[in-house]
Amino acid sequence: MLGRYTFAWDDRTGSVALALGRVSLLNHSYTPNLAAEKRVASRTIVFVALRDVDEGEELTINYHGDADCRDPVGFPVVGS
Fold it and tell me: What's the Cα-to-Cα distance from 15 to each of 9, 36, 52, 55, 72, rounded to whole Å?
């Protein structure tokens, strides 16, 4: 079950990363305003805006890691 909340991390080893803190509150969107950039060497994930984000706008990512991916995520997606 926990695997549903991880980021694919190192394709070479098949490892995954679990994001904690505020980033764990990011919701899924098929039109996200953020993208995750993995930095394996420094063990960090940097979130980059895909477009200008309005003040007060919810920050969202595509849970599949590809902003253009439309594959199902296993739950109803509202507002995408």
Answer: 5, 16, 32, 35, 22
Q: Domain for residue 67, yes or no?
A: no
- How many whole angstroms separate alpha carbon 32 and alpha carbon 61? 5
Number of domains in the chain: 1
Give residue 42's domain range: 2-61
pLDDT in tens, 5-16: 788 888 888 898
Closest CA to 53 of 80, 23, 33, 31: 33
| Digit-coded pLDDT (tens) for 16-73 | 888 888 888 899 999 999 999 989 889 888 999 999 999 999 999 998 888 899 998 8
Give 14-22 contacts, CB < 8 A, sequence gap 24+.
Answer: 17/45, 19/45
